[in-house]
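re the bet — no i am not wrong, look at it urself. input seq straight from the record:
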Amino acid sequence: MQKIYLDAAAALDGLLFDGMHICAGGFGLCGIPERLIDAIRDAGTKDLTIASNNAGIDGEGLGKLLRTKQVKKMISSYVGENKEFERQFLAEELEVEFCPQGTLAERCRAGGAGIPGFYTKTGVGTVVAEGKEVKQFDGEDYILERGIFADLCIIKGWKADKSGNLVFRKTARNFNQPMATAGKICVAEVEEIVEIGELDPDCIHLPGIYVKRLIDGSPYDKKIEFETTRDREAA
């Protein structure tokens, strides 16, 4: 099976349609599928429902799709760094489903494992629980959360071999791994593609069976949300 594609547009060819549900890996600007996001923007696909920890920042990451108003709904945990997100939300131009971070990760993991729902204590007694089934286990309340299973998963990795086995680098692993399993098809972009056998089998984070299409998106610029520095100490 041919998994390696020339670029992001080619890798997404035939997969995009209006109103689709997408899982997008990354945390802030760390480990986000930049090339695939750009290709979705350029394709003009609209009315998207996107599950992602956050919605990027203004002009970067998923913030690019918000700017072009291609997103109908966000399922997210943290959205505090995006003014356009705030504007659209307050103007009721964007539907938002807030979800605790751990719950969001587990909803994706559960969806990928074929589990349609699970009970958790997280959010009990808060607005997170509104409209959800509550059940007691051993005298404690738990709320029912639905697993997430999308039409398309887009993720970013560090290295992959030609069969799609993939390694993430440090914190860029974040939501990429569970989201890679939570969809009908997973498209990955990586910084380097190596020959089969070059990756240590014990170090592979995502088996190639989950990755259907793959691109080398290098080179990448390392973007930082907030640059914080301190004065150099005197010699």
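see?? DSSP finds six helices and eleven strands in the chain. told u. also The domain at 8-116+148-216 is CATH 3.40.1080.10 (Glutaconate Coenzyme A-transferase). so pay up
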